[in-house]
Amino acid sequence: MGCAYFLVRPLGKERLRGAESSECQENDARATRGLQAYRLLGEFYLATGDFAKAAAEYASLYQQHPKDLFVRKRYIELLIRDKQLEPANELNEAILGENSRDTDALVTKGQILNRQQKSAEAIPILESVVHSTPANALGHLELGVSYASTGKLALAAGEFREALKQNPSLLEAREALTRFAFLGGDVKLLDQSSNDWLMAVPASPQAHVFRGIARLRKGDATGAELDFQAALKGSPKNPAAYAGLGDVRLLQKRLPEAKKFYEQALVLNSHSTEALQGLISVFLIQKKPEMAVRLAQAQVAKFPDSAADHLLVAKALLANQKNAERGSRSKSR
């Protein structure tokens, strides 16, 4: 892996290829002339996905070789992956202090700002990076994250697509585009991007969930069920897959089974809005609005700051009121 490749999501094997800048290539070439041997164990851990051992190895290497730029940058990647943003930022700022034009460090600065929920501050930094190095896939990806976080959705989608254009194997960009399509309700893009994701990683539980959602929104309950079952095969405790199966059964009007799947999703993730909404829908269809109200109110008591849960309470209360009015009119006749 060239030193330009920095974390957005956990490192994958696709990040162990190539470099994106001449500066990085020069550093890598210098490394192969004699400094690479002591990094082999850490790189082996990364290649096999053992990130805990990789982090421990690079923490030790940084203490032994504090001037090795490759080691410093790799250690920063692993700190970010472990959500240790402050020490990562401190080390990255030291690199920028030595070279304010270090493209890798500038992308990492934007990445850290995104994770600190300071995306507005990240935008000018990352825009400068992609302007000066248009082929920088990670720069485009992080800029897309910044745009999405600040409500510039069309620009975000464009940056995610550009990241994939520059590096088709960058799965983080494919995942970002898929999530963008899901949140924006773009069924066509959701179907396309999740299919592309599965072509790259056929067993990805997340990709199967997203394709299942796309299929369900297109009315393909059978195809959706196959995807949700495939997701559970790879991730048996995936609450989104259980909620998806609940949606399939709800569409098929098999309410007892739908209820069971939604309840399982809530066991695995008590804050699953999709499962909660599905379970409330089951109660309302069964003409049990009082149970829907109790469920929604209990959820709000657990998560008082959730606007989505408050909306579900309002929906349940409204349905309960309408049910009471219908009962009152029936008695008066």
List the helices and strands and how they pair.
Layout: H1 22-35, H2 40-47, H3 51-64, H4 69-81, H5 85-98, H6 103-115, H7 119-132, H8 137-149, H9 153-166, H10 171-184, H11 187-200, H12 205-217, H13 221-234, H14 239-251, H15 255-268, H16 273-285, H17 289-302, H18 307-332
Brief overview, please?
This protein has 18 helices and no strands. The chain is mostly helical and 333 residues long. It is elongated, with a radius of gyration of 24 Å.
The strand count comes to 0
State which percent range the strand residues make up. under 5%
Main beta-sheet strand count, sense and barrel state: none
Q: Looking at CATH, which topology of the largest domain would you report?
A: Serine Threonine Protein Phosphatase 5, Tetratricopeptide repeat
Order of helices and strands: HHHHHHHHHHHHHHHHHH
Q: What is the residue-mean pLDDT, rounded to a whole number?
A: 84
Characterize the overall form: elongated
User: What is the number of independent domains?
Assistant: 2
Radius of gyration: 24 Å
Highest CATH level, the class of the largest domain:
Mainly Alpha
Considering the chains and any ligands shown, give keywords for the structure.
mainly alpha, single chain, disordered N terminus, Serine Threonine Protein Phosphatase 5, Tetratricopeptide repeat, 0% strand, 333 residues
Explain what this protein looks like in three dimensions.
The chain is an all-alpha fold and 333 residues long. It has two domains: 184 residues, Alpha Horseshoe (Serine Threonine Protein Phosphatase 5, Tetratricopeptide repeat); 68 residues. It is 76% helix and 0% strand. The radius of gyration is 24 Å and the shape is elongated. The chain starts with 21 loop residues before the first helix and ends with a helix. The N terminus is likely disordered.
